[in-house]
Predict the 3D structure of the following.
Amino acid sequence: MTTGPASDSPTPTTPNSPAPDAASGPRPSLLTRPLLLRFISMVGASLSFFLLLSVVPAYAAERGGVGAAGLATGSLMLATVLGELVTPRLVGRFGYRLTLIAGLFLLGAPALVLTVSGQAAWIAAVCFVRGLGFALTIVAGGALTASLIPDERRGEGLALVGVVSGVPSLVALPLGLWLADRVGYGPVAVAGGLAALAAIVFVLGLPDRADRADRADRSEQPLGVVRGLRTGVLLRPVLVFAATATAAGILVTFLPLAVPSASAGIVAVALFMQTAASTLTRWLAGRHGDRHGSARLVLPGLLLSAAGVLVIAPTAHPVAVIAGTALFGAGFGITQNATLALMYTRVSAASYGTVSALWNLAYDGGMGVGAAGFGIAAGLTGYPWAFALTALLMLGAVAPALRDRRTPAGSQ
């Protein structure tokens, strides 16, 4: 917990400076014991969230219809966004570890009583509490994880974080529905709850603040979310990442509807290609960023993402759909890693929570806005033109990306 006035600039390093040269000395160890413990807790949170992500709407729809399913998902995402806004303040007051423990408890405990009632209001209330818990885990947990990664290997470390958190989601999302069909909703809900609660044990072994944060000036106040959004060196990467996240939400939601039903298998292949490509390029971008800096990767990632969405537009052609999703995935992985790594280099450790909150707000908000807006556009123009329009709108983020590349060192 820090006291005193905030510093005049949130930038302890120059905005576009490359990471330290790995050849200048031995590279610090990446897989330390604290980071491995954090990975275990991350897997527990990811399993808990994604195991029930599709199961809860299905349970709500069975009990109260389609409207109840929408209410469940809506309350979950609303609470997540609200929680992301306040978590940096909670981290500043209570520290990483206690905030993360609270998040895991709020994510897990309500799941144990999900099936006590089938009323829509009850399900929505459970989802709302779990959404708050999920927000605490991803923001406080993301900030803590960043503090455990050596500066010299930040990009590579963040890429590894993406793999560790992403693989459980790929497994848990279909597994939840499969299990619900065979053992019922109750056991799946309990399993999801216990996954988050069990992760608390591993959080207890984590440092409350990493050594780097402990050495920071105790008089420094962390940036708030609002001030972060008013700080150019943080806002510009947020805008670029949000532009690519809108397309990610669109593909997950509408690709199965846009591709002709006779090519249903193509959708599965395409989404797998997207995930595989983004995982690979996120890793490669991290390694490149550690050696040469992440700033110059942001614009290529954005352009690659937009090109992929444009290639998808002729949805009746399987080759275009698969190639486009792979191209988008490659750009999305680059943008994910480059924007997050860049934002962390532009603040002190005291403001890692704010960076985590801003980045996740761009992710969740972008996906939600993209899906909602695309649904309206597709209804008016059809899917091919809606995809082409999406690619064009994504190019609007070229302006902040170019501005960021030209920002003089030390400017905001």
The CA atoms of residues 216 and 349 lie 7 Å apart. Residues 154-183 form the longest helix (30 residues).
